[in-house]
């Protein structure tokens, strides 16, 4: 989306008439590439099936919950969840995974189309052929192919960033030297779309802020217009935030609490950054673009156009820094892709009037790099994970299930059995709590509530989906993403798997306290039962008791508004990992 300062007349004759056609073909290459690669590499991740279970709970009338009867927000993207619900409802009998993967691919392709259109809009004063630059870099990355689908919100993120770029670019006046006379709220859809960032992902509020600043800078200076735009942008996120506080008794999704989204682990974060950027030689195309910017003075003309170009770049850089700060993620490249997409959006299109320009040289370098990256550059951990727990998730689950790109539940031969057993046993009236259903030597306890059929597992996607939506058929998350209690237990950074985002595994005693018959436990292990009894007592006292009631009591209007009042304190609530210490802290001596 960046233009050259120096202009050149359109070539005369045949060359000039061919320029639009050549531009169309060239700009279509990365779009076609990501469409084909995304469709070919379509798959549902295990985490994607966490979303799928919530979709089925909603359609079953249990609300946006993971387990019926316990209100916990296990989905990070509100907007993506409800798009999945719509896709599932509109496709009738098709499994949610099928509609989810195709919706993700379509949204990813739409994101590429939108940033390309925005680039054409910003570069229209410049002559020559329009060629892809940033979009070609993105389309050549294998992680982009994988996370075009996956059942996660990544494709939606690409589409939303692209939509914001396009909506801002099309508001600019034809003459870049003039200032727009539009107030910030017009067209009304622009601030509304910009405000959706926190509903795409809470951390996308950073992108919303950058795009909002660009909107103000490209609009008529009018306080009333800015205030109207702010109301339009904030209305939906604020309404949902009130719903979140009242329904879930929290100000952020439970995943943010369990993953310590406000913490920092710079060492792991830089490893995560290097894992993406070094594997695919990304400095090569990025330095080529930087050199072209410095040598060719490719900044767009006009204050408004520069603001539109700067917004996604700065937001993408800051988002990348945030991801590095919190330690990255366990999925290879996934969390860095939105930031990279945004940083390259201002460079989606370059205009080339001559082969001797810096823009032409940059496109040539990118094309050469892409010809190597597409067929040859791949991550290789020499096994399931690298030394810090990063995984090529699609390849890993394909290997485990023996199916390239598992999509439907029938493709998941690895993890479906425990969940299917829960559904089957619950329907047959068999009640128990199994801390580890994959270990035949692990103990099985009678359930605390007769009629409940409960298992605990560290991978709760396909297992939870297979368990069904019946109340009492419960899948407990050992890593706390779907557990509102253990998500707040203080276990330290070392308290779980040695993988980013999977360090919150609370002691088993907290799950025993909630799901097992402690009289039976006492017969087998009196010490364990005593510790579980301490945890059980703590669960009924003070703020911890308030949290338990807030997520399990019937949701009346008084309960809803009480949850709204409690949400700030309960969001930051920290529970000591030792049950005796927790009981003393919440119940007193």
From TrEMBL:
<feature type="transmembrane region" description="Helical">
    <location>
        <begin position="100"/>
        <end position="120"/>
    </location>
</feature>
<feature type="transmembrane region" description="Helical">
    <location>
        <begin position="18"/>
        <end position="39"/>
    </location>
</feature>
<dbReference type="GO" id="GO:0016757">
    <property type="term" value="F:glycosyltransferase activity"/>
</dbReference>
<keyword id="KW-0472">Membrane</keyword>
<feature type="transmembrane region" description="Helical">
    <location>
        <begin position="280"/>
        <end position="300"/>
    </location>
</feature>
<keyword id="KW-1133">Transmembrane helix</keyword>
<feature type="transmembrane region" description="Helical">
    <location>
        <begin position="360"/>
        <end position="377"/>
    </location>
</feature>
<feature type="transmembrane region" description="Helical">
    <location>
        <begin position="225"/>
        <end position="243"/>
    </location>
</feature>
<protein>
    <submittedName>
        <fullName>Arabinofuranosyltransferase</fullName>
        <ecNumber>2.4.2.-</ecNumber>
    </submittedName>
</protein>
<keyword id="KW-0812">Transmembrane</keyword>
<feature type="transmembrane region" description="Helical">
    <location>
        <begin position="189"/>
        <end position="218"/>
    </location>
</feature>
<keyword id="KW-0328">Glycosyltransferase</keyword>
<feature type="transmembrane region" description="Helical">
    <location>
        <begin position="307"/>
        <end position="324"/>
    </location>
</feature>
<feature type="transmembrane region" description="Helical">
    <location>
        <begin position="336"/>
        <end position="353"/>
    </location>
</feature>
<feature type="transmembrane region" description="Helical">
    <location>
        <begin position="126"/>
        <end position="145"/>
    </location>
</feature>
<keyword id="KW-0808">Transferase</keyword>
